[in-house]
Amino acid sequence: MKYSLRVNGAARDADVEPGTPLLWVLREALALTGTKFGCGAAQCGACTVQVDGEPVRSCVMPIELLGAREVTTIEGLAGPVADRLRAAWKDHDVPQCGFCQSGQLMTAEALLRAIARPDRATIERALSGNVCRCATYVRIRRAVETAAGIEAGGNEGGE
After folding, report:
1. Any idea what the CATH number is for the domain that residue 88 is in?
2. Which alpha helices (H) appear in 3-153, and where do they start and end?
3. Which residues of the chain have pLDDT under 70?
């Protein structure tokens, strides 16, 4: 079946079966492979994209539920908040294997657009559904704090 959708600001068409998760539409039908498959059960956050600016687990969202809403993937993430996050990610040497990074960034960017200067507990709560296989959680949190203009904390957490 043919579905018309808006992805990263552009109209796109995908010919997929009803019930196909958005993740596979993005990766296979549209060749946007920055969004990763992790668990397939909305538990790890690797597949996080934004739908109308809100983080969504694309592995469990059937294409027919998308409707006319705008999808933003890591390939289309742009703007001053995204730029600050990418710079902070680099400054804090966040990525190890990199597998979770697109989901982490999509979630962090939505948080900082909603709350410009979140406290540590809010950051940790917002990112708690994103699993990092390399356990760089302290660096991820520090990068979000830096992007938000918050003084990053000390050496707690074992790093």
Report:
1. 1.10.150.120
2. 22-24, 80-91, 101-114, 120-127, 137-147
3. 152-159
